[in-house]
Every structure is written in structure tokens, then in C-alpha cells.
Input
Amino acid sequence: MPTELPYAADAEESLSFDELEVLRLQYQKELSQSHVTVQTKFNYAWGLVKSPMREHQVEGVRLLQEIYRAEPARRRECLYYLALGHYKMGNYEEARRFNALLLDKEPTNLQAQSLASLIDQRVTREGYIGMAIVGGVAALSTLALATIIRRASRK
Output
């Protein structure tokens, strides 16, 4: 039995500009007609969340949250992409929260399991970076303090 989970490919893959533009135009068309279907809104949000641009991701998450609140029947569909969007924006606690909700509903969802692993890896990596920064600041502070004390003792 393989131990490798299928990679949460959506974490790295984006739509092309033209593909996202098709979704945007459809969304804008329906918006101008004062009736946006849930599917059109979801498709556009999905494309935005997959984008490498943070402002797209923020807008995609916002649209998904609107769907999540307004359409109880579509909540499960939104959970993975809400988790993914928050992951891509660096909101790891929110990403974990939405991904955990999905895993509660679908414990065998391999994409959600893979995303959980990516979230954990990123949190660990950023924790190490944070510790290195704190250690560096502490070392520089110690050197500065030692220099000040040395200069003060010479006078």
C-alpha cells in the first residue's frame, strides 16, 4: 500500500490568464444582469484562489465565503478551496480550520489529507525561520550590549 498521498496540485497550479479571463467575463456578465448563478460564482472563485496573485486569492476566498454562508448545500465544495486559499495567503490557522471541517466530513479525502500535510510543513518551516530570526536578533542584541558595556568600562 503506497504511503504517498496524491499531491494537492491546486496548491501550485494556476489557470492561464485567458482561462481566468473567461471565468471573470462570465461572472461580470451575470453580475451586470443582476443574477449570478452559484456555479458561475464558484467557478470564478475557484480560478481566483488558484491564482499566484494575492489580491486574486483574497477575492476568491471572499466569494467562497459568501457561497459557504448562503448555500448550505454547497458548503462541502467550498471547504477545500477555502482551506487552499487561506494556505496560499499564509493564513495557516484558517486553512487548518477549513481543512479540518472537510476532513471531519470526508476523512478519506486524499486531497484534503495532502493539503493538511502541506499546511503542517509550511507551519513548521515558518516556525524554524521565526526561531532563526529571533536567535539572530538575540545574538545581535548580545553583541551590541557587550560592545556598550566594553566601551562604558573603558571610560
Confidence is low (pLDDT under 50) at residues 1-6. The two ends are 73 Å apart (CA to CA).
